[in-house]
């Protein structure tokens, strides 16, 4: 294992200190317990939007903290759920008196710990579970589908609604709606290596890919031979469309998400093909993100996320945001 | 070799089409010859800032095209200089009648082709050569030092000056000044693989790194055993400071640049250490970038870039910019 670290036990703390210093205009980092809050928190009268999950998926979630998106994020150890005390402390630090919305990727550990925190928090609390991965129904770490890069879309849209002063019930219903309109599918060309493990998570041969991979390098739908990008992307788009079953003419947000080690040159090629196939299927791509937004440490590969949109979702997507990872309109 | 491509001969064109579609609000892509221009070009009365170089370093240079930065970028094939006809066509497409400034990384092929273009272009033309890599004096592809991630700083600062209406001579002098105030050093943990070659550029053992590596995976100062990040970063900071020899108290812009396959978790850890060491050396870090800005395809590793700043440079750094890779203030 080759990594630029001083030891896997101090990696997260040292990295969070760097993140906090690099983005001191946007966030404050707390180390014990670990959480990241927007620098201007709490915002009185505003629903507090709180997310979190295992580290190793950066910029998710810390890179989504800031005006127009998350109020707080709780980073667990690499690929490990944050603890209830982290979540409680983070939610308390950003409580503006208008309730707390928890955005949780559907992994058993995350679900359990966010639920426990929700029970112990004062004030109104609602939870949106994100389960956008169409690849597998149940999996190694989940009952039901996994939450993957669609989380970025949910956090952006719900974050904009909270910023605009909408109620907790409104924000929660919107989050459910965006999640239901979102499907993702990923492929891995190489495995990630978890620092504490020291060896690759998956064994993938030099001529193989994992189709439908999860964001922890966990198995997906099938192991298959590497094919030209257009053939792989064709299958990815087909599977996402089969799940979402959009009416012809429904506009979409398309996110091509790198898993960490895939060059932008390849991600833009994937975007080119995916966009064309969506438009051929009667789904015009009206908003786009291409880049590393929900990574799996140093895994090579990418995922496609499609969100079927409407005027409300697009207006909230376009609303100003200023975070380490997304910045427009302010 | 595992890559999400359809063939190395069509990779660049397909990727450029994706880039153009993903960023249609910012840029226009021309395929024959290949160049990227800002969507609102030409800007009458403004110095046109044009850069380019081999592909494989994305988001450099196409991701730097837009208001407040580059007017045009010319992508060559992967790790191959753009041709004079590309450069000429790009410069003509963005000519606002106030002269053309070429920003060129110091590689023999790039220097030759940009020089040839400069001779054939009508109107006033000036060139800024970027040679910020302190690792080696001459190298495989250069006479003198290599131009690496410091190019991003030069392009940002000079782009802001041109946007503010400053003259060609002013912009050129400023570019020279920023380049002279900038030093970079990179380390590779793994090799990149050029699609047309199909095999890794460098052989690096599982316990080794290349200290002082170039952005094409070319050899640097020395091959050495992997050490803890703090020890590696300590040597990187020391070498950059030895080159720049800053007066105590000089403020700096610090860029921690990922080469393509290094997780943000590690880049923020490197930033944490580098910032502390610079501040211990009396160089306060007043501006920051952490991320993949000048990559080497899928190479793991990173570089540090330090620019010694003053009020003029900082004001131009802070000026609004809106490109695929950098976006603030607008």
Structure description:
Two copies of one chain form a homodimer. Chain A has a six-stranded mixed beta sheet with strand order 1-2-4-3-5-6, sandwiched between helices. A six-stranded mixed beta sheet of chain A has the order 9-8-7-12-10-11. Chain A has a two-stranded antiparallel sheet with strand order 13-14. In chain A, helix 4 runs antiparallel to helix 5 (168-180) and helix 4 (150-163) packs across helix 8. Chain A has 330 residues and is α/β, with parallel strands linked by helices. Chain A folds into two domains: 11-180, Dihydroxyacetone kinase, domain 1 (Rossmann fold); 182-317, Hypothetical Protein Tm841, Chain: A,domain 3 (2-Layer Sandwich), CATH 3.30.1180.20. In chain A, 31% of the residues lie in helices and 24% in strands. Chain A has helices spanning 11-22, 84-93, 108-120, 150-163, 168-180, 229-244, 264-280, 311-318; strands spanning 27-31, 34-38, 48-55, 72-78, 100-105, 125-130, 182-188, 208-211, 222-225, 252-258, 285-291, 301-308, 321-322, 327-328. Chain A has eight helices and 14 strands. Chain A is globular. The model of chain A has no long low-confidence stretch (mean pLDDT 97). In chain A, strand 13 and strand 14 (327-328) form a beta hairpin.
Number of distinct helices of chain A: 8
Indicate the radius of gyration of chain A in whole angstroms.
19 Å
User: Per CATH, which architecture of the largest domain in chain A?
Assistant: 3-Layer(aba) Sandwich
Whole-number tally of structural domains of chain A: 2
> What is the global morphology of chain A?
globular
Distance between the termini of chain A: 41 Å
Stated plainly, the CATH topology of the largest domain in chain A is called Rossmann fold
Largest interface, C-beta within 8 A = A-B, 60 and 61 residues
The protein's oligomeric status is homodimer
């Amino acid at each position: 294992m080759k990594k630029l670290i001083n030891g896997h036990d101090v990696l997260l703390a040292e990295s969070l200190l760097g993140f906090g210093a690099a983005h001191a205009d946007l966030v404050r980092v707390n180390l014990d317990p670990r959480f990241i809050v927007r620098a201007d928190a709490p915002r009185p009268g505003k629903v507090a939007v709180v997310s979190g999950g295992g580290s190793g998926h950066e910029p998710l979630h810390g890179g989504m903290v800031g005006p127009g998106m998350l109020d707080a994020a709780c980073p667990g150890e690499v690929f490990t759920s944050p603890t209830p005390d982290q979540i409680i402390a983070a939610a308390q630090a950003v409580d503006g008196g208008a309730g707390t919305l928890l955005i949780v990727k559907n992994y058993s550990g995350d679900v359990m710990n966010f639920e426990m925190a929700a029970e112990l928090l004062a004030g109104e609390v609602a939870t949106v579970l994100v389960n956008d991965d169409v690849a597998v129904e149940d999996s190694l770490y989940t009952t039901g589908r996994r939450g993957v890069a669609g989380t970025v879309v949910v956090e952006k849209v719900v974050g904009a609604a909270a910023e605009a002063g909408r109620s907790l019930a409104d924000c929660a219903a919107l989050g459910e709606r965006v999640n239901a309109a979102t499907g993702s599918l990923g492929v891995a060309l190489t495995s990630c290596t978890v620092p504490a493990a020291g060896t690759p998570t998956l064994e993938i041969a030099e001529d193989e890919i994992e189709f439908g991979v999860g964001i922890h390098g966990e198995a997906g739908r099938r192991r298959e031979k590497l094919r030209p990008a257009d053939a792989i992307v064709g299958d990815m788009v087909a599977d996402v469309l089969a799940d979402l079953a959009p009416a012809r003419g429904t506009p979409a947000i398309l996110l091509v998400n790198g898993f960490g080690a895939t060059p932008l040159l390849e991600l833009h090629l994937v975007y080119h093909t995916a966009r064309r196939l969506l438009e051929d299927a009667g789904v015009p791509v009206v908003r786009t993100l291409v880049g590393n937004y929900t990574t799996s440490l140093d895994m090579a590969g990418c995922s496609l996320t499609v969100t079927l949109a409407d005027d409300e979702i697009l207006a909230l997507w376009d609303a100003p945001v200023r975070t380490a990872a997304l910045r427009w309109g302010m």
